[in-house]
Please model this.
Amino acid sequence: MSLYTKIIPVLIIFTLFFQGGYNVTEQEIPNDIAIAFKVGTAKELARFFNDNLELTVGENEDIYSKSQAERIMDDFFTKHPPKDFNFIHKGGKEDAQYAIGRLETFKGNFRVYMLLKPKENQLLIHQLRIEDEIE
Model:
């Protein structure tokens, strides 16, 4: 038996195993979330909200419906017009993704934490926390 006949089946199995796992676990956080923060559009951001989500923004800290959370974010963006937003870190596994971002506004900078979970083949925000950035 030649070396190739031994290696090729192992390579095929290895490729199939890791290719299949990669597709399941590496669902990317939509770039439209970053754009919504950068532009300050609560309506666009709400497209990625779960039906109910845990939201912490300023004094608002509770579990809100999608529409309530959209109104809170709209108020936040009105009071803190964004200049820029960038993801600092992203990670997770197949059942949950998280991201940490930095939101620069004309009235200060904020740290943004979010937890996203897949629902009907789309990552949705289940938890969102916006805190003053301590420099």
